[in-house]
Every structure is written in structure tokens, then in C-alpha cells.
Amino acid sequence: MPNIYFDHASTTPLHPEVLSVMMDIYQGPPGNPSSTHSFGRTAKRHLTQARDRIAAVVGCHPSELMFTSGGTESDNTALRGTLNALRHTGKRHLITSSAEHHAVLHTSKRLEEEGYSITLLEPDGDGIISPEKVQNALREDTTMISLLYVNNEVGTIQPIAEIGAVAREAGVLFHVDGVQALGSIRLNLHELPVDLMSFTAHKINGPQGIGALYIAKSVPFQPQIVGGSQEGKRRAGTENTASATGFAKAVELSDEHFEEKNRHISLLRETFIHGLEAELGSSAFVINGHKERSVPHILNISLLGADTETLLMNLDMEGIAASSGSACTSGSLERSHVLKAMSLPPDRLNSAVRFSFGLGNTLKEIEYAVKKIATILNRIRSKV
Ligand SMILES: Cc1ncc(COP(=O)(O)O)c(C=O)c1O
């Protein structure tokens, strides 16, 4: 049986070149970047170079990147670090959306319990939050807007530049979760009207457990992890030099192969959709998310007449790994909060499966999966 991985929005395989640069550090001499002796200075050089290389690709100053343990920490810290720093202003209003990743949603919920006021914007049926909606939600006491660049469940790309312009005009900070954008959308942070952006390495064939938070120079920020003076006194704790170096390698590789990778993934996506149309007919399924404003690697499909869990189980038995949505909710019977926020009808909500493609996936795998999906779907439907 094949072993087909269509869950790259959840995590991706480590690129061999990333592993190789990490192994060089793991197998080399020890070194804490804060130590002043030669071992420490070597580690510090690796760390500095990693930060410089990532900054060069995403278009910011290296000092504006703070390494974190991943996207979740970056999101938590972006919200708390800035809102706490601005507490003295008495302004306590945060605008976000009900289709965000749980890292932002759950942090917002906590902040609400601590006395902040949260506005949760509803996306439209394609997952888009319009700049007008953001504009209308602004208040005198709004401090921050936090939105996803690319929705991790449906792949919809938000109009970040336009929303950023609204934020700038109002003098409100703008945090963007760029976890699924890195590698799929070319970024130039200094050209975007964005103040903070979250990243993680493991969605772009880098190691798990490391990410970064872009914090523009002018942004007030209160450290959330205190202790030593690491990361420009913004995040205490000995840095993960090997992972930071692996992250930098992954960012460079994704930049170098950007066009080729996205062309290949778009071809996989189109072949998948056309294959399903040929096998099942176009009325048998619906693609969730925006038709044009979407990244190619995330394809969320409702296979009408079947149930998500049954589909995932049957796919798994055929050697195909897909997901019901975000990694945090996969494995549970909870319906996707993103699809609910998009107000999808029950038949689409209950039959949605996310296929997400990446490096290593082939057309042969797509053709196999399409055939299996058709067989599975016909079997399930014949039982109803
Ligand atoms: C959009 C988005 N934000 C944040 C995260 C969390 O990132 P991490 O797994 O690195 O904590 C994820 C991961 O699923 C994500 O897709």
C-alpha cells in the first residue's frame, strides 16, 4: 500500500539539506551564543547568520526578528507582548476574526477574561475579511488588529495590504499570522503595512519547535518570557542555534525554489480537481475557500453525502493522509470552526476534508488518490 502524505498544512517533512546543516551544528563543538569564549562566539555567529538570512528573504531588519518556539508562541506573544506594553494607554480593544488559528483565538479569549474587549469579525462564505468590515469595527480604544494572511484550513488569502492601510490610517497596530503564507507568498515586510508577523519553520520543510516573530522597530513590546537578555531582551532562554540555522536554510530553499515549487503544487491541485470532476462529476463536491484568492497547497473539499471522519478513516486505510482542518482539531469530532465561521451549510460542513500538498508529492499520487476517493465515496453513498 502506498504511503501518501497530503497534510502539509499540518507539518512538512524535514528537507535533507536542512537536516544536514542542523547535524553539522549538533555534531560540532558545544556553544551557548551568550558565552563570551570562542565556543560561544561560534554559536553566536551561527545564530546571527541565521537571523540575517531569514531577514534578507522576508524583507526586514534582522533585529526585527525574534526567534520563538513556533507559530503558536509567536501568535501568543504578538498579542500579549504589545497589548501589555500598551496597557497604560487604557485602550483595550482588539479586532480579530472567528476564522483565526486557535493560537490567536484562545489568546483573545484569555485576554477577554483579563479585561480586554474583543471584536470577532465574521468572514464571508469564501473566508475573506473585507477591509470595510475592519474599518467599521474600529473604535476609539482599538489598539490592535490581528488576522491570518492565509487561512490554514481553506487557504484563502486575506487582503492584508488593504487591511493594513486601514490600520495605518487609524493608528492601530496590525499583527498578521503569516505561518501559511511563508513559502507560498513572496514577502517584503518593510513594504507591507504590517507591524508584527508570525512564522514557523515546520510548514516549509524546516524543523518543528522553532519560529519567529517579526516586530517592527517602532512597535512597543513587553517580553513575555523573562530571564536572560537573549533575543534583544525580548525573549529569555538559550537560543536553539541548530534549529535557527535549519530554519534559515528552509527559508532560503523555499525562496530559491519558489516558482518551481508553486508551479508544481498548482499542477497537483488542478490535476486533483479535474480528476475528481472526471470521476465523480462536478456536482459531487464543492471547494471551500476563495476560488482565486487562495494558496495552491491547501485544498479544502466537501465530498457531499459523506461524513468527514468516515472519509478520513477510509483514506487512511488506503494509505492517504489528509485532515479535517487544523492540526489542533484533527482526530476530534469537532466540526471546523473556520468552516462554521464561513456559515457553510451542514452538508458542506460535515463532509469537508483538507488535502494539503508539498515537496515530494507526485502526479502519480494524485491519480491514485482520485481513484480511491471515487471508490470510497461511491461505497459510502451506496450505504446511505
Ligand atoms: C496559521 C497557523 N498559525 C499558527 C500555527 C501554529 O504553529 P506551530 O505549530 O508552529 O505552533 C499553525 C499551525 O498549524 C498555523 O497553521
Automatic annotation (TrEMBL):
Belongs to the class-V pyridoxal-phosphate-dependent aminotransferase family. NifS/IscS subfamily. It comes from Paenibacillus roseus. Residues 4-368 form the Aminotransferase class V domain. One of its GO terms (molecular function) is iron-sulfur cluster binding. Pfam families: Aminotran_5. This is cysteine desulfurase. InterPro entries: Aminotrans_V_dom, Aminotrans_V_PyrdxlP_BS, Cysteine_dSase, PyrdxlP-dep_Trfase, PyrdxlP-dep_Trfase_major, PyrdxlP-dep_Trfase_small. The keyword Iron-sulfur applies. It catalyses: (sulfur carrier)-H + L-cysteine = (sulfur carrier)-SH + L-alanine.
